[in-house]
Amino acid sequence: MARLLRLLDYERAIQSDNLAQIIESNYNLLIDVEQAAQLTMTGHLKQRYQVDKVFSNTYLFNIASTYKGNDLVEYTEPVFSATTVYIANDRASFSGNIYESIAGSVAHAFNPLEWTKICADKLLFYITLPNPSYNNSISYAIGDVVFYNDYTYTCLQPVSGILPTNTNYWLVGASYSVTGILPTDISKWTLGDNRNQEIVQYLIDITLYNLHCRINPRNVPELRKERYDGNIASQIGGAIGWLKNVSAGKVYVDIPEILPSQGNSITWGNANGSSLATINMY
Fold first, then answer.
1. Which helix or strand (DSSP H or E) is residue 173 part of?
2. Distance of alpha carbon 206 from alpha carbon 17, whole angstroms
3. pLDDT digits over 8-37, tens only?
4. SS3 28
5. Which of 54, 85, 137, 153 is buried most deeply by CB count within 10 Å?
6. Can you spell out the DSSP letters for 1-19?
């Protein structure tokens, strides 16, 4: 299963030493509980949203890997070593930053005069799309080019609400991917976090609540209870309440929606019809 979160994400909700204590420094346990929380969220979201895109991997950057449009990476380099001989353009991380060697150096202690600071260590970058993403509500003209499911498509005739996979209206182009290009190359990468931050926060909240339940379900901190299941007095809010409202169609989330093919529709919401909603493709 893809892993949306990275370890640094938890620092927005809990100090690293406290997290290590809760999981007894067992980071495999953290991932297991986190994956279970992710399944809880996908169960509520999959009726309406493309959960495979919402919960895609946050990769640790590897120069040899191939990345597709919108793929997100954490960029880091090997830690500088005083016993390593560096050549020009080698990169290393040191004291929270990434540096590039100016002309190379023999093995010795770090000398900032021999290095160019590139960026902070462990920043997030995502692949810049070659063209705008397809938008189901936009009217397209002949020649317009869009990006959809890893491919570019060119509009063949004026169209609105018809997926690029319909060859009567769209011409499929080449697939798009990036290999061997560092995240600091702004021609292919964008600095920033393109994940939905509500999703990230609620996934953290559910994971931390379940980790505390593992220790003692009768002694879960009130903050974790409230972040998970809302205010006890009002019975509103919290991650689970938010997910239920999304599932019922009461809350819209700015994440990729499932788009039906032409002539079909998708319906979601409460079975009694009080919150039913439908997308139709004509």
1. strand 170-175
2. 19
3. 999 999 999 999 999 999 999 999 999 999
4. helix
5. 153
6. ------GGGGGGTS-HHHH
What DSSP character marks residue 113? G
Contact present, 249 and 269 (Cβ < 8 Å)? yes
Q: What's the pLDDT score for residue 273?
A: 46
Non-local CB neighbours of 258 within 8 Å, separated by 6+ positions: 48, 49, 50, 266, 279
Record the tokens describing residue 270, joined without a space: 């409460």
Taken in order 246, 194, 227, 28, the sign of the CA dihedral is positive
Superfamily of the domain at 130-175: Carbohydrate-binding module superfamily 5/12 (2.10.10.20)
β-pairing, 145-148 with 151-155? antiparallel
For residue 178, the cross-strand partners are: 67
pTM over 0.85: yes
Residue ranges in the chain assigned as alpha helix (H): 16-22, 27-45, 51-54, 197-215, 222-229, 238-247
Residue 161 has pLDDT above 70, yes or no: yes
Structure tokens at 239: 């991650």
The residue ranges of every structural domain in the chain are: 1-55+195-282, 81-119, 130-175
